[in-house]
């Protein structure tokens, strides 16, 4: 039977259309009121423009809602949408991996839920997306497609992120590499918007103290934004396992529920960031068929655990990846200088350039060299591998220590590589791959050990 979404979908789809048209609408508004000053006539023009935009959004939302429908048969789920160009999506039931839900602020206001039908190899947000369904319609859809992913089922195990750990997660998230370019771009955009003219020479600090102050301000701003983002993403995080299904709920404003079939788990990654490892903390990520294109938050298996809790968590939630996380085979001691060389070069070269440009920064190259050596030696200490009856584990470090756990039956690719310089030193590197994006590599192993590991992996 063909069904339509809840009428609240008119508002949801209309708001989406308005959001997608925000930039051209802002340009149109600026052209309408620009150059007139903020008098009453200009205000009425702005209000009229906003009213027309709102009416158009409601019209677009109504048309999108009226022309969208879905149906479920004994073999497939079908979705149709479009007025002039009709798009029909058919997903066979055997390809359906999960029926996930997202409830944003507007959907919560109307008491409806967005549904994402996840299929193996599907789109990032779901092969089929229904933006507004009632709770009863969601339950009926799950029952109709035979989904085993109902999060209301009695769980076999449950882990919740407490408020204290949420704050610890936010404080140690360390997403500075993502936030800093955004801050820099925002600053430049504000300068362009306000008509500020800055000479290139003004951007060069006059003293090392100014360099340090600018860096501290930028890092502090990025850290605060990172904290806010982590709280929004991971608030209310709950992971449960019911039979062969994982259910993950998270989100402050947009409440998301995702179902992960255990049979589709390709790999689990244990991440110990530089702000977390000293305190014995780690985050877990999972790669699952059908979710490879999702953002990092959507791939989070659990945001924060004590290191000693990881084995118990995996045993309860992902048994196929459970087992010991110690007793790794290490890289040989003669590989230390090779681990230290690259990070030392990467930080020393910019430090030398700064020392040439900034008075009083002559000590920076030495400090940078020591930092690079320390990072390289830490990477050498972390590097290792472990192979047991059911899993292969590869541990490495750039800044964060990263342990990739791959069930042997999920291993899709493994390789051994040896450069000319490694051949002279009797060293080689081994890499493994699982799923669409999980790659792990341990560098500079003894060549005989690397070849032996390669051959043992081939016997799976």
Largest sheet: 7 strands, antiparallel
What's the N-to-C terminus distance? 47 Å
Structural class: alpha+beta
Rg, nearest Å: 27 Å
Assembly of the depicted chains: single chain
Specify the overall morphology. Answer: globular
Mean pLDDT: 84
Count helical runs: 13
Number of strands: 20
Helicity level: 40-55%
For the largest beta sheet, what order do the strands appear in spatially? Answer: 6-5-4-10-9-8-7
What percentage of amino acids are in beta strands? 25-35%
Give unreliable regions as ranges: 187-201
How does this model look, in words?
The chain has a seven-stranded antiparallel sheet with strand order 6-5-4-10-9-8-7. Strands 13-12-11-17-16-15-14 form a seven-stranded antiparallel sheet. Strands 1-2-3 form a three-stranded antiparallel sheet. Among the domains are: 173 residues, no CATH class; 129 residues, no CATH class. By secondary structure, it is α+β, with helices and mostly antiparallel strands.
Quick summary:
This protein is an alpha+beta fold and 460 residues long. The chain has 13 helices and 20 strands. It has helices at 9-20, 22-33, 40-66, 105-110, 135-144, 163-171, 176-194, 208-234, 310-317, 336-357, 364-382, 420-425, 447-457, and strands at residues 69-72, 76-81, 87-92, 96-103, 113-119, 128-133, 157-160, 238-242, 245-250, 255-261, 265-272, 281-288, 300-306, 329-330, 384-387, 391-397, 401-407, 413-417, 427-434, 438-446.
